[in-house]
Each structure stands twice: as C-alpha cells, then as structure tokens.
Amino acid sequence: MRRKIFPGDKMGLKTEVLIVGGGATGVGIARDLSRRGIPLILIEKGDFAFGASGRNHGLLHSGARYAVTDPQAAKECIEENRILRKIAPHCIEETGGLFISLPEDGLDFRDRFLRACEKVEIPTHLISPEEALHLEPGLNPDLLSAIQVPDGAIDPFALILSNAREAEAHGATFLLHTEVLSILSERDKVKGVRVKDQLTGEEYSIETSFLINATGAWADHFLKPLGLRIGIALSKGSMMITNRRLSQRVINRCRPPSDGDIVVPNHTVSILGTTSVRVMEVENFEITPSEISLLIHETSRMIPSIEGCRFIRAYAGIRPLFMEEEKEEDRSISRGFVLMDHEKRDGLKNLITITGGKLITYRLMAEKASDLICEKMGVNIPCSTHLIPLPGADQPRGLKERLKNLPMGETLCDCELVKRDEVEALLKDKKLKELQDLLHRTRMAKGTCQGGFCVYRLLGVLNESEKEFGDSNRILKGFLEERWKGIQPILWGSAVKEEEVVEGIYKVIFNLKS
Ligand SMILES: Cc1cc2nc3c(=O)[nH]c(=O)nc-3n(C[C@H](O)[C@H](O)[C@H](O)COP(=O)(O)OP(=O)(O)OC[C@H]3O[C@@H](n4cnc5c(N)ncnc54)[C@H](O)[C@@H]3O)c2cc1C
Questions:
Q1: What is the pLDDT of residue 9?
Q2: What does the radius of gyration of the chain's CA atoms come to, in whole angstroms?
Q3: C-alpha dihedral (219, 154, 265, 255), degrees to nearest 10
Q4: Residue 412: what are its φ and ψ, rounded to 5°?
C-alpha cells in the first residue's frame, strides 16, 4: 500500500524500491515505475538536476554527432529525439541543427558522416554554403558545406520537473537535500540505506526491497562501501554562456568529435561547448584558462563574432564514461549507457546500477532499469512512458505564444518572464528549501542578466512569505558566491571592469563585505 511521507515522519521508513539520484535518469525511473504502480522513494543529495543533468548543453541530440564514432549511441539518440518531441514538446525548442565543414576540415569526414547518418536513419540534407549563410548569417563565410539535421534545444530542468510531477501524482515520494551515507546489507541482499538530511543534519535509515543506483558520475563512489567497483572514467566538460543568442540553429563542426565543436542556442543566450578533460573527483573541479581560450578559439572558427563576445558565465559537468578496459583518449569511449545487474555481477540480489548515456536517452535508460526491477519483482506491467505526454505538454510554447498567454501581474524576472504569482505558488511546495531550488524551478537568474535584477526582487518576496528561508543578506551572499564560481573563469578584458562596477554596487547598496 502507498504511504505519503511528511517531513518529521521519517522513523521506520520502508519502501519497495529506493532510487538514489535525482538527475534525469533517477527521476525518469521514478516516473516509469510509479506509472506501473510500484511504490518508491527517490533520494537526492541536492535539488533535482544537481549533477550532470543540470550541467550540460541542453542539446536535443539528433544522434548525428555520434553517427561515425558510436552508431549504437547515435541510434538511441535519434529514436529518443522522436519520442521526446511527442511527450515533452514544452521542454523543446525545435531549432534544427547544421554540421558545417571548414576549409581545414576538408570534405572526407563529411562524406563518411552522411553515410553513417543514413545507416542509423538520421535524416540529413546537404545544403550549399550560400544557403547556410542565408539561414545563419553569423557563420564563417569560408565554410565549404553544411548539412541540416534534426538537432534541437531541450530544457533539462523543465524536463525533470515534469517527470517528477507525474511520478508524484502516481504516488512517488522525493526526499531532496538528503544524502545516502551508507548502504545497509546482509549476506546477498541490500537491506536499506542510512541517509542524512543536508539541511537539518538529521540522520535516519530507510529499508527497501530493491535499490537503484542512478547516481551518474558518483556511481562508482556510491558502491564503494559495499566493496564493489565499476570501471568508469570521469571526464570534465566545460561550457560558456554568451550574453546573446548567436544563431537560430545548433551549429556543429563536421569533423571527428573534438573540443569546441558545438554552439547550442538556449532561449536568449548561446552555449559554447565543450572540452573533455580526465578528472579524479566528481566535485571540486575547476574550469581552467586554457579550456576557456580553447573554447573561444575553436567555436569562433564556426561563428567569428564569438571572438568579440561578452560571456556571462562558464560552467562544467562530469561525464561518467564506462570503460571495460583503460583507454587513453576519453572521446573514444562510448557515450552509451550501462545497466548493471549486481546479482549477476556481484551476487547482490536486489541492487542495480544505471549510468552513462545522455540526457535525451534518460527515458530509454529508465525503461530498461524499470524493466529489470519489474522482472526481479515478478511484475508484468509494460512501460508506457513513450506513449503518454508529460504534464505541461499542452502549455504554450515559443516566445510569441508565451507572450500572448502571459498572465497579468508583477514581473519578477524580465529575462525569463517570471511572475510573482508563479513564485508565490511555488513557495507552497514543501520540497523547496533553498533559493537555488526556486531558481531551478522558474529559470530565474538564468537569462542574460544572470540574476542582476530579479534576485533582489525575489528576496523581497521571500522576506514577505511565511516560508523560512533565513536572513536575506546571507541568502544574497550565498547566491553571489555561487555566481562568482561561474564568472571568475571568464574574467578577462572588459569583463574585469564590469565586474568591478558590479562589486562596487553590491558593497555600497547592500553593504556587503567581499
Ligand atoms: C559537459 C557535458 C555536456 C553534456 N551535454 C549533453 C547534451 O547537450 N545533451 C544530452 O542529451 N546529454 C548531455 N550530456 C549528458 C547528460 O548531461 C547526462 O548523461 C545526464 O544528465 C545524466 O543524468 P543522470 O541522472 O544519470 O546523472 P546526474 O544528473 O549526474 O544525476 C546523479 C544524481 O545523483 C545524486 N547523488 C550522487 N550521490 C548521491 C548520494 N550519495 N546520495 C544522494 N544523491 C546522490 C547527485 O547529486 C546527482 O544529482 C552532457 C554531459 C556533460 C558532462
């Protein structure tokens, strides 16, 4: 029987399935299993999308990027691309994409690329340089050719929140800001987990019949207390955000996957990506000046105006790349996903791990993981997540439609058109504990001003609300410290002067010490 859990009601918690990880994969599994009627709890140490799911390009892959080097991953991408357009249209901007060849790339790779796309049924359309420049006037005029593919842009936060909403409606429970500290096991079975509420410090145990490790890049670290290891390499990818949108379409370089070969439009800005640097830790990594100059240098070959662009932030995510054997070059490791049944692998009957893959293959990953759990449970209910649109799928899309349907009332965020009423409604959600939780759910502070105006208005609303978020100056300091991590790597030239002015404003108006 299902049981709702309320804060403070954590003694003797028990569940059928416990999912660890509130990224796209974990939340996707929660949606899938709850639709099949299986009681579950999901534990996430931060907010939803705290890991790679909140730190990527937001590219709705057509799969073309992998067609030559990893056809299996390419096939999964194009199939899920088609499904997501149907079930999550409100999270997608159908931008289309171009793969462009520059003089230094030649045309040999382009021809292999076209053949490889055809094999995995990714539609392509070869166009002339003139046509490409007509569609995207900002492109390098020296380009040799361009290929149209069905790439797009996807909003990971909206996608994950829609999945979570549906899972909750089917009885799933989410415990956010809660970290799994250890796994409790007995002989050949996992019994449960010991967890800690990150905000109150409270520790307690949860018993479970099945445990799903959906911790992404943390998957290996998570299993360590059980003495288990899985071979994953951690690959850091850094990205930069420009202060305006540079193209209507996703612009890719038509060459073997390498650094700085993609520019993804995202609402009012563009995201430049990415690098691939092997790291040893999932957290506490930095974006280096050499990555920044590499990104600017390489992407400006595709869109020359990038050289003179103003950047508003840099950020990075960690890819868990599964390796059966050590490889020297991370880009040669598959971007596909891995599903491990620890019963077969390690003799632990009720534990599975799912990691790797892409944001846009999250649903397929969730389907495979849920099928395996159902098989173990003897449940014979098929997956339906590819058939049913997510909540919000009927929402107005695109700026024009949104403006037409924009409710009246006070606007808090001009970049992302967030109204005070929306924020006040969200404040009723018990899961919201921190400023960042609100920013994730509304997209506030993600636009070109990066919270320069809206965060102060938001603090005013928080101050007036009954919800206890704490001292406004402390919250503002926390926000600025978080923002600084993204600004510091790009502080060059005129950006330094601008940041000094901003710092002066904070010190004088808000009396904040640095
Ligand atoms: C640089 C970069 C760019 C990318 N670009 C794209 C793209 O454009 N398109 C695309 O489709 N894919 C992209 N990807 C891949 C995509 O982001 C990931 O495949 C996907 O987000 C993984 O989701 P996940 O849920 O498996 O892992 P994650 O999102 O990392 O989620 C794992 C979660 O587990 C939680 N966790 C870990 N340990 C614990 C614990 N002990 N207790 C509680 N919680 C815990 C973490 O906090 C985290 O939230 C990119 C990846 C990177 C790194």
A1: 62
A2: 23
A3: 60
A4: -95, -40
- Ligand 1, closest atom to CA 337? 19
| Each residue's pLDDT tens digit, 490-507 | 988 777 887 888 788 777
Give 313's strand partners. Answer: 241
- Cα(first)–Cα(last) distance of the chain, in Å? 53
Distance 74 CA to ligand 1 centre (A): 19
For residues 461 and 435, the answer to whether their CB atoms sit within 8 Å is: no
pLDDT digit string, tens, across residues 18-40: 999 999 999 999 999 999 999 99
Residue ranges of the alpha helices (H) in 353-406?
362-377, 398-404
What residues line ligand 1, using a CB cutoff of 6 Å? 20-26, 43-46, 50-53, 56-59, 61, 179-180, 214-218, 222, 237, 274, 317-319, 357-360
> Across 74-202, where does the E strand assignment appear?
92-93, 97-101, 125-127, 145-149, 152-154, 173-175, 178-186, 189-197
- pLDDT tens, residue by residue, 186-201: 999 999 999 999 989 9
CB atoms within 10 A of CB 218: 23
Q: How far is it, in rounded angstroms, from Cα 486 to Cα 449?
A: 13
- Each residue of 393-429: b (16+ CB within 10 Å) or e? eeeeeeeeeeeeeeeeeeebbebbbbbbebbeebeee
Report the separation in Å between the CA atom of 29 and the middle of ligand 1, taken as the mean of its atom positions.
14
Beta-bridge partners for 239: 315
3-state helix, strand, coil in the chain (%, to 5): 40, 25, 40
CA 419–ligand 1 middle distance (angstroms) = 29
Confidence category of residue 219, pLDDT binned at 50, 70, 90: very high
> 41: which strand partners?
18, 173
Q: Which residue's C-alpha comes closest to atom 51 of ligand 1?
A: 56
Determine the atom of ligand 1 nearest the C-alpha atom of 317.
Answer: 53
Selection from 349, 315, 353, 369 nearest residue 232 by Cα: 353
